[in-house]
Amino acid sequence: MTHDTTLIGSIQSVTGRYWQSNNKPLLLSGLPKLLSIECSNYQAILGERSLKEFINQTYESADYKLVTHPQQRAKIGIIPKSEDYTFSDADSSVHHSRGVKQATISFLAALESLPSSEVDKVIIPTSVLIKLLK
């Protein structure tokens, strides 16, 4: 058994167990910690290659594949080859809503710096503020 085959088997094993327990991808950033338990010399087997490079080179003959978030390019997971997974847009909408909320608060803080005669002319419906701050 070659060293690459050993590492492929370990990645398959870790990925399969994680998928069965969580039914979601094992993020590539979390793979080294779990992999070091299964295959303590995995870094020596990789040599100069990164885990992502190794997985991309071996996925066709292995039982795993990479899945990537459509908007967050750094969010990469690994799942069993027989499974399908699509990252939800909920992750993106959380960041978007935080940005809108922060922008609204910043806008209101900026209004505070206006003279009171100009502030009196600003009309923002409460329903709009509620939607922006949700």
Based on the model shown, name its key terms.
134 residues, mainly alpha, Nucleotidyltransferase, domain 5, 2 domains, three-stranded antiparallel sheet, elongated
Detailed description of the structure:
By secondary structure, the chain is mostly helical. It folds into two domains: 3-80, Nucleotidyltransferase, domain 5; 90-133, no CATH class. It contains seven helices and three strands, in the order αβαααββααα. The chain has helices at residues 3-22, 31-38, 42-46, 51-58, 90-112, 116-119, 126-133, and strands at 26-27, 64-68, 76-80. Strands 1-3-2 form a three-stranded antiparallel beta sheet.
Helix segment tally: 7
What gap, in angstroms, lies between the N and C termini?
56 Å
Mean pLDDT equals 87
| CATH fold-level assignment of the largest domain | Nucleotidyltransferase, domain 5
Strand content: 5-15%
* Strand numbers in spatial order across the main sheet: 1-3-2
User: What is the global morphology?
Assistant: elongated
Uncertain runs with pLDDT below 50, 5 residues or more? none
Number of domains: 2
Helix content estimate: 55-70%
CATH class membership of the largest domain: Alpha Beta
Report the count of strand segments. 3
Rg, Å, rounded: 24 Å
Query: What structural category characterises the helix and strand content?
Result: mainly alpha
